[in-house]
Amino acid sequence: MTTTLITGANRGIGLEFARQLTKAGHTVIATAREPGKAAELKATGARVEQLDATDPASIHALAERLGSTPIDVLINNAAVFLDKKKPSFTETTAEDLIETYRVNVAGPMLVTQALASNVQRSDRKVIAHISSDMGSISRAIESDWKGHLAYRSSKSALNMAHVLMANELAEQGITAVAIHPGWVQTDMGGDGATLTPNESVSAMLKIITGASPADNAKFFSYEGHELGW
């Protein structure tokens, strides 16, 4: 059995990762900004830790509490979609852009910096970045996408950060993958989404479980297909 650390696990996809992994008998370290308000997460049986993935002090404190604990799988899941209701770039503000990048790009980078040594100490040595096909530049061109500039571009930036980190982490024997979870019925995805959290996470866990060095630095759909950047 593995030890998995999940960021942003108090709801949605992160919460479902915690549910499925604990049910399968794995050790789960699940983070939330406010553990006192994470009753559903605590009910999974996961070890709940406080983490604000945009705050270096909070990340350092978590790393200190973990010490040399091996982490087989690190899932960088925490994310925001602040311009969800802004279909034109003319409505997106500088504040939307900056805060979205803080959470969706800087967060995974800082957490990976702090915990890469824990991952390296484990048997599995896997990092998964929960990205989105909304960050695919090739798809934006092909489909003439418009709007949601902050979110879309943050996921494009995360994809680049993922590749650059993966290229370095490979030297430590770590495999990093980016995964598009599909359109999921969460607060972010909305009620009209096509996938339940259970369906999305079950599919993503197959990718994470099967990840090998040959998959390093790649970008997958939840179905396991490689996606274009």
- Range of strand content: 5-15%
Cα Rg: 16 Å
Strand order of the largest sheet: 3-2-1-4-5-6-7
Compute the number of helices: 7
- By secondary-structure content and strand pairing, the structural class works out as alpha/beta
Ranges where pLDDT stays below 50 over 5 or more residues in a row are none
Mean pLDDT: 97
* SSE string: EHEHEHEHEHHEHE
Number of strands: 7
- Shape descriptor reads globular
Distance between the termini: 33 Å
Give the helix proportion (percent range).
40-55%
Largest sheet composition: 7 strands, parallel
Keyword list:
229 residues; alpha/beta; 7-stranded parallel β-sheet; 7 strands; 42% helix; globular
Task: Explain this structure.
The chain is of the alpha/beta class. The chain is built from 7 helices and 7 strands, in the order E-H-E-H-E-H-E-H-E-H-H-E-H-E. Strand 6, helix 7 and strand 7 form a beta-alpha-beta unit. Strands 3-2-1-4-5-6-7 form a 7-stranded parallel β-sheet, sandwiched between helices. The mean pLDDT is 97. The chain has helices spanning 12-23, 39-43, 56-66, 94-120, 137-143, 149-169, 197-210, and strands at 3-6, 27-32, 47-50, 73-76, 126-130, 175-180, 218-221. The protein is globular, with a radius of gyration of 16 Å.
